[in-house]
Amino acid sequence: MLIVLPYERYGLPDVFESLSQYLSNTNARNLTSSELKPTMVEVKLPAFEFGQQIDLIKVFEKLGVDLKSALTGLDPQLQINKAIHEARIKTDNVGTEAAAVTITATVILSAIRHPKADVVFTVDHPFAFIIRDNISGLHLFTGVVNKLN
Predict the structure, then answer these.
(1) At the top level of CATH, which class does the domain 1-47+118-148 belong to?
(2) Distance of CA 103 to the CA centre of its chain
(3) Which range in 31-35, 52-56, 71-75, 120-124 is most confidently predicted, on average pLDDT?
(4) What distance, in Å, lies between the first and last C-alpha atoms of the chain?
């Protein structure tokens, strides 16, 4: 998950404009592997839940897809009358606690001390997120969290 957090509390629109211009001139997949260096980061991310449901019939119609004849090659009586896409994202403290328990167990069992984070990344105002496939670089889900609990 990539988190886009502006410096200013209400700076997301400006960040989107700058990021859009930058990414149109940059291969974002190569950016993550070539220009960035590994750094220990402590991430403080609030719990959030995000979901969206889209009526794909309207999307297909805008794209010019003729749904009445889309399946006639299989059977003339088949028609698509409903297509819905729904996606949900949920992060919460249970996931964070589970990771912390694993880390604590590792520390106790192996007696290895984890290095202190070089950077503390606190997400405390509106942000955008992108979930992408690390192999293909494809964005699987994007969203904006405007209100934090």
Answers:
(1) mainly beta
(2) 24
(3) 120-124
(4) 20
Give the model's pLDDT for residue 115: 66
What's the CA gap between 27 and 18, in Å, rounded? 15
pTM for the complete prediction? 0.60
pLDDT greater at residue 140 or residue 103: 140
How many Å apart are CA 37 and CA 42, to the nearest integer? 16
Domain limits, the chain? 1-47+118-148, 51-91
Q: Are residues 91 and 99 in contact, defined by beta-carbon separation less than 8 angstroms?
A: no
The token duo for 122 is 């606190």
List, as one string, the DSSP characters of 23-39. Answer: HHTS-HHHHHHHT----
Neighbour tally for 91: CB within 10 Å = 16
Mapped onto helix, strand or coil, the DSSP state of residue 34 is helix
* 87: nearest Cα among 141, 144, 139: 141
pLDDT of residue 95 exceeding 50:
no
Contact in structure between 19 and 4 (CB atoms under 8 Å):
yes
